[in-house]
Amino acid sequence: MPEHRIRTRRVPTERLAVQITDVRDKGEPVVFLHGNVSSSAFWHTTLTRLPDRYRPVAPDLRGFGGTDPLPIDATRGLRDHVDDVAALLRALGIERAHLVGWSMGGGVAMQYLRDHPAAVRSMTLINPVSPYGYGGTHGVEGTLNSPDGAGSGGGTANREFVARIAEGDRSEDSAVSPRSVLANCYGKAPWRPEREVAYVEAMLTTRTGDDHYPGDSVLSPAWPGVAPGKRGVLNSMSPVHFRVDDVHLVEPKPPVLWFRGEDDVIVSDTSMFDLAHLGAIGAVPDWDGTPAQPMVAQTRHVLNRYAEEGGSVREVAVPGAGHAVHLERPDEFIAELLDVMTA
User: Fold this and answer.
1) Per residue in 7-58, pLDDT tens?
2) FRET label pair with 300: which of 49, 68, 123, 258, CA 20 to 30 Å apart?
């Protein structure tokens, strides 16, 4: 399979200037959407491996990488990112594209499909955030644990991790340093990728604060005592602001690939980033029995409804791989991606 040199540039749009990485100007567009605390750098290896018939484009989402760090209005869910991507594609002259979303980027892809179904050729989800958001729900239908979304949003972030990002920490002297989180949470631990230095640098481009990562929060009378605010990244994925469980209603229905690592500790039915699961195992005090969010089961429930309404869905679960399964198993991922894009 041919490999190509990547290029990075900033593209002005009517909303903001977006930094993108791409390799060519022609072919079927494929848009790669990165996850939280990362950037388009996590797609560089993938971009170079697509055949010449495709035009891969990987933007930095606002608040990450080299894109303008405009504030995130969390009350719109992930629609700030969706509207940014739509503006970028208009600026690039792209009317329809294959969407590939990893983690938070999977939520952006789902919301984009919900808002612009005719503009999506296919959708690939890689360990995506649940269609009901991240944290604060239970059951396969995403029932809120508390009306205010307690257990989700900006107040659930590890404050030391946020501080180390803000400080530009490149060390490995703490379990919550960006380098340690990359090694132990992004891939199946211990994950030491060849491009580790580049990935750590990408993580450190994350803007921090109330308008970015993690966002603001409010006190809650419900366990664990914090509820989502209205600004920033984690609040934009709170179930009170983000929910795409009705994606089965879209027409037309492009084919969907759900590609996931079975040993993911970030997006999981027993996520090590879900306060309810951490409470259940004694890692968070005063747990009141609030159930963990079954993130994988929720995604499967929503995609099954999509299939029942006439859509094509393929789930590929990769044993021994974690959250960055597209990087841990690149050959398998590229093969599955090419398959769904030619469906």
Assistant:
1) 999 999 999 999 999 999 999 999 999 999 999 999 999 999 999 999 999 9
2) 49
Determine contact, residues 27/52, Cβ cutoff 8 Å. yes
Q: What is the DSSP string of 105-169?
A: HHHHHHHHHHH-GGGEEEEEEESPPPTT-SSSEETTTTEESSTT-TT-SGGGS-HHHHHHHHHT-
Question: pLDDT for 74-128, tens place per residue?
Answer: 999 999 999 999 999 999 999 999 999 999 999 999 999 999 999 999 999 999 9
Q: Could you give the CA distance from residue 308 to residue 301 in angstroms, rounded to a whole number?
A: 11
Local structure of 231: helix, strand or coil: strand
Amino acid residing at 213: Y
Secondary structure (H, E, C), 279-335: HHCCCCCCCCCCCCCCHHHHHHHHHHHHHHCCCCEEEEEECCCCCCHHHHCHHHHHH
Residue 3 pLDDT > 70, yes or no?
Answer: no
Tell me the backbone φ, ψ of residue 172, rounded to 5 degrees: -135, 35
Model pTM score: 0.98
SS3 180: helix
Residue length of the chain: 343
124, 116 contact by CB (below 8 A): no
Question: 208-237, pLDDT tens digit by residue?
Answer: 999 999 999 999 999 999 999 999 999 999
β 143-144/213-214 pair status? unpaired
Provide the sign of the torsion angle of the four alpha carbons 93, 99, 105, 106, taken in this order: positive
314 forms beta bridges with 257
